[in-house]
Amino acid sequence: MLSIIIVVLNLLIETSVSLTVKVPPDPIVAHVGSTVILPCWISPPENAEALEIRWYRHDQFNNPVLLYNHGKIQDTQEEPYRNRSSLTLRSDQSGGLKDGDVSLRLEKLRVQDDGSFHCYVSGEHSYDSEEVVLKITALGSAPVLSPKPLDDGRVNISCESSGWYPEPSIMWTSDEGRALRPGGTSHSRGADEMFSVHSWTAVSLSDAQLVSCSFSLRSGELKEGRLNIQGIVSSGPSDSSDSSDSSGPWKALFLTFLICALLGLFGLILYKYRDKLTGKKPATEICKEETPERLTKEVVGDINVEELRTHAVEITIDRESLHPDLTVSKDCKILRDSEGYNHTGEEFPFQLCAFGAQRFSSGRHYWEVDLAQPNIPPKNYWIIGVVKDENFTTIDRSALTPSRGFWFLRSDGPRGFYTNTDPPVKLSLTPRPERLGVLLDYDDGQLSFYNVTERKHLLTISSRFSGSVVPLFNPGAGDLSTLRILDCPKPEEPAESSQPLLSNNSSDA
Ligand SMILES: *[C@@H]1O[C@H](CO)[C@@H](O)[C@H](O)[C@H]1NC(C)=O
Ligand SMILES: *[C@@H]1O[C@H](CO)[C@@H](O)[C@H](O)[C@H]1NC(C)=O
Fold first, then answer.
1. Which residues fall within 8 angstroms of residue 93, CB to CB, at 6 or more apart?
2. Which residues span the membrane (predicted)?
3. pLDDT for position 491
4. Which of 249, 274, 370, 463 is found 20 to 30 A from 363 (Cα to Cα)?
5. Distance 411 CA to ligand 2 centre (A)
């Protein structure tokens, strides 16, 4: 009788100590690439060292993320989780397995880890399991804004960013924080499951000067890029000519006709009113006289290279500060990567910098660089700009910003053309420039780039210079063509700037 009671009591005790596992009620949120702990514990605490602990996903009970059995982790992890998963403590106070803590540690998170994980614990007489939800997020790259002038005076601004998860929302705003309507937004998904987003909006200067584009996740994390369109619009017609070569003059012609028509109407009224014309020039003739002025100076907006060249200075490469993997010609004008230099990797070779021997701390200075030689395609890779005098050693990519004294335009092969401003401005320049003009207006804080062959203004970077700045060149790696600094033919009348020319008087290479 007594033994029966003991057996029944034993059974009762066995069943009353059935396992219960607990997990946090809310999802765990973690970034791609980071390490996360998925807490799971036995409650009330019980030594789990002799139990089976199985972490698995969905219905993959037999292909676990992690399996602990017979006192050790079994070598049966599903391939994508091998070497990434382990048992861990859910907090510093945790007593570990002995205390029933069976939390999972997962490293190098991927988008594919998004979703639920089952925490299954089994003893000899009972088992229990719960589900932990893991939410993966990925904060994408800094948005890159690229402007493209439209025929109607507005600018089409594109904003791109990649590496997002889940799909971010995008918002365009003006400098006063007013929302701007996106013209269109498209998403695409890469092999890594992450989202790339491209959005565009068309704005005019009256809508906004400073346009901001921001991508955000529901968690509130966001990345923002800004672009000041003032320089692009106000220097307007010359920029827009790259997309509207023909419409510029037509618009001018239309404008001229409109003025003619108005003047004509005015003349007609005058005529009708007075009923006779007394020695007054017909309105149409006035228009004809005005036309050439308007067309060349205001509307067509081709740059005047001769005018730019009045500021020409002779630039040579400073041998002293030349990167050892670069080669420069005897006359210090032609630059390229050394023959033995073997560039590996995708990244632009930012370190291959050369500096001009001339320093500028006021005035306007202009120089031209040849990026193509006869029968050889134009260079794909280059950096051209200016750098603050003392900055020759910081060639770490992250240090190449205007605030650190670098201002430049970079051609990165098929990836396009970028400024080093924050955020960078991406330009689509086709065809590739064969000859680039650079105008440094120190006092106005402007660095302008021109396509000399096509007589086009490309872009102006506005900044404030301090101390002296020197020309910056980087010929990239692997191009056939060299980077050659030209001796600009100076116009007849002497340049207004009194910059001393270098004594290096080697003849044109
Ligand atoms: C896991 O690590 C072992 C040795 O530490 C290594 O041999 C194996 O290739 C790794 N497996 C994976 C999938 O990375
Ligand atoms: C603006 O540019 C995008 C491409 O970046 C293009 O898809 C869109 O049609 C353009 N919009 C206008 C109004 O030109």
1. none
2. 250-271
3. 63
4. 370
5. 22
Nearest CA to ligand 2 atom 3: 200
Confidence of residue 222 (pLDDT cuts 50, 70, 90): confident
For residue 142, give both structure tokens: 């800094």
Which residue has the CA at smallest separation from atom 1 of ligand 1?
83
DSSP 8-class letter at 294: I
- Delineate the domains of the chain, giving CATH numbers in brackets: 19-137 (2.60.40.10), 144-228 (2.60.40.10), 287-503 (2.60.120.920)
Q: How far is the CA of 79 from the centre of ligand 1 (A)?
A: 10
Q: Which residue has the higher pLDDT, 11 or 283?
A: 11
Dihedral sign (CA 412, 414, 417, 420):
negative
Pairwise pLDDT comparison (262 vs 196), residue with the higher score: 196
Enter the tokens of residue 98: 């002995």
CA distance 320 to 307: 33
By most ligand atoms within 8 Å of CB, the mutation choice from 144, 148, 150, 156 for ligand 2 is 156
Return the biggest CA–CA distance within the chain. Answer: 141
d(CA 148, CA 157): 6
- Give the model's pLDDT for residue 30: 92
| Sheet with 210-216: strands ordered across | 179-180, 169-173, 210-216, 222-228
* Mean pLDDT taken over the chain: 79
> From the CA of 84, how far away is ligand 1's center (Å)?
10
Please count the helices (runs of H) and the strands (runs of E) in the chain: 6, 32
Residues 163-210 pLDDT 10s? 999 999 999 998 887 889 999 999 999 888 999 999 999 998 888 888
